[in-house]
Amino acid sequence: MPWFNYSTTGGNTSYHQYNVAGGSVTPSPGGITFTHYSETQGGDIIGSFILEKAGKQVNSGTSMTWTQVKIEGFFKTKRK
Length: 80
Fold this sequence. Notes:
Elements: E1 5-7, E2 13-16, E3 18-21, E4 24-27, E5 30-37, E6 44-60, E7 63-78
Antiparallel strand pairs: 1-2, 2-6, 3-4, 5-6, 6-7
């Protein structure tokens, strides 16, 4: 299963590929698109991703709050 987790500096806010509401965990619909994929080692892989209904988790002392958010991103990396 693909995994997405981003935490802010200080660690009190994090973003996930799922949302928690009413005690239920729901995976976010979304996808990944590759706009360039090199066939050779060391070549570029470029694309984007979207998580339509992801979760934002905020921890404040003794409580935790979840809100639904949309996450979009772009990437460029080298093929190993």
